[in-house]
Design brief:
Elements lengths: L1 E5 L15 E5 L3 H10 L4 E3 L3 H8 L5 E4 L8 H9 L10 H12 L3 E7 L10 E3 L2 E5 L18 H12 L10 H10 L3 H12 L3 H9 L1
Parallel strand pairs: 1-2, 1-4, 2-3, 4-5
Antiparallel strand pairs: 5-7, 6-7
Length: 213
């Protein structure tokens, strides 16, 4: 298949998809794009605005995954902004622009991922773990282990997520803050694989395995 991976980050969603498909990744941050390219050397990586690229190239692909920016929809971000007295912001409607557009015009399969929002979603999503997903295919919910929320330093957060996601970012010359951002924005790889398998594979035993994890 020809796959388009939008807002690619460090490719958490794509990490366990394998290399049998032709994958194009769009990432606007050049430093993050360089890291993605090193992690996935077989993918074509383009530094560009994913929202703009989608509109121009959606017809070229069989499967599209999109993870538009989530901060303006996030319950946690809203809580922090209220506590810190920051000015209110409109939710970024790129998310819903892409959902409506792909539902209407895209002939392949798409998945759009975002955080669970502080408001009732305008278009009903599937819920998998602690994220929303929109798709033109049915996505059964997946149980995820409930993790205890602990007070951790930024270094501890990086170490914890690297271990859980199977990444080692120590060799990359980027700031601690950027590492945290990349890991926080990454989709948990097993969830990305679960969704991919659920859409494109028919072996039920494989799906049952992910539902149990």
């Amino acid at each position: 298949m020809k796959i388009l991976n939008l807002y690619a980050g460090i490719g958490g969603n794509r990490k366990l998809w394998g290399d049998e498909h032709e994958i194009t990744a769009i990432e606007i941050n050049p430093k993050i794009a360089t890291i993605y390219q090193e992690l996935f050397p077989n993918d074509k990586v383009i530094v560009d605005d994913a929202h703009v690229y989608l509109l121009a190239h959606y017809e070229e692909f069989d499967f599209i995954w999109s993870s538009p920016p989530c901060p303006t929809h996030s319950r946690m971000r809203l809580l922090c902004d209220v506590q810190e007295g920051k000015p209110k912001k409109y939710p970024d409607m790129m998310l819903y622009e892409e959902i409506v557009f792909l539902k209407q015009f895209f002939k392949g399969v798409f998945v759009i991922e975002n955080v669970i929002s502080y408001y009732e979603p305008l278009i009903k999503p599937f819920i998998i773990g602690n994220h929303y997903y929109w798709s033109n295919k049915v996505l059964p919910g997946k149980r995820e282990e409930k993790r205890m929320i602990l007070r951790m330093t930024e270094k501890e957060i990086i170490k914890d997520k690297e271990k859980r996601f199977g990444y080692n970012l120590s060799k990359f010359d980027v700031s601690q803050g950027l590492k945290t951002k990349m890991l926080n924005n990454a989709v948990e790889p097993l969830t990305g694989k679960y969704i991919f398998d659920n859409i494109f594979k028919t072996k039920q035993e494989g799906l049952d395995k992910y539902k149990e994890e």
